[in-house]
Specification:
Blueprint: H1 12-25, H2 45-52, H3 65-73, H4 82-97, H5 101-116, H6 126-141, H7 145-148, H8 154-159, H9 176-190
Helix pairs in contact: 1-2, 1-4, 2-6, 3-4, 4-5, 5-6, 6-9
């Protein structure tokens, strides 16, 4: 799936609300990430760092179907309905924590879209981007085909020993260090032993 940036960026309040919601609704898949040494540059930075500081989840779970189904059933005609978005994030998080593979992918993808469809990546968003990519990469490493084909060249990236120099698509627009960090975190948590 190829995504492009919208001409009109998402409202900052929506991005801030999403990041703040992730403090309580963060994805379970990203491992512990070191605190940045730079002071927060935006009001969403503390929430983003908190959302990204998580231990590797138990990969053996296969539950979460009810929460996943409820999240999928949610509909809204208003793309900026914050209550709708937050509820959907919370349900995907719950399902992912219970071991639902597709929920892990959806959670990472929704967060990535929230960030990517806004303005260009900012240093203050590093931890949140890394957490989102870790979910997507982790789902791909766990075998979900939709996650493995989320970005151009992702199957080769997931199977390679190191990140290639020639990233394509949305990953090419992010600092390579962020992508490398997410890939290392996903491998630490999800690579087959």
């Amino acid at each position: 799936m190829n995504i492009t940036r919208r001409l009109r960026p998402a409202p900052r309040t929506l991005l801030a609300a999403t990041a703040l919601a992730l403090v309580g609704c963060g994805s379970p898949s990203a491992p512990t990430i070191e605190e940045p040494t730079v002071a927060p540059e935006s009001p969403t930075e503390p929430a983003a760092r908190a959302a990204a500081r998580r231990e590797c989840p138990d990969r053996s779970g296969d539950g979460g179907q009810a929460a996943f189904d409820e999240a999928r059933a949610l509909t809204s005609t208003d793309e900026y309905d914050e209550g709708f978005r937050l509820k959907r994030f919370a349900l995907y998080r719950q399902a992912a924590e219970e071991g639902h593979l597709q929920a892990q992918h959806e959670l990472g993808w929704l967060l990535f879209q929230e960030l990517y469809m806004g303005d260009a990546p900012e240093p203050s968003q590093r931890a949140t981007y890394v957490a989102a990519l870790t979910d997507i990469f982790g789902a791909g490493l766990r075998g979900l085909e939709a996650a493995r084909t989320q970005f151009p060249g992702l199957p080769q990236i997931l199977d390679a020993q190191q990140l290639p120099d020639d990233l394509d698509g949305p990953l090419a627009e992010l600092p390579a260090e962020w992508v490398e960090e997410a890939l290392a975190a996903a491998r630490d948590c999800y690579a087959p032993n």
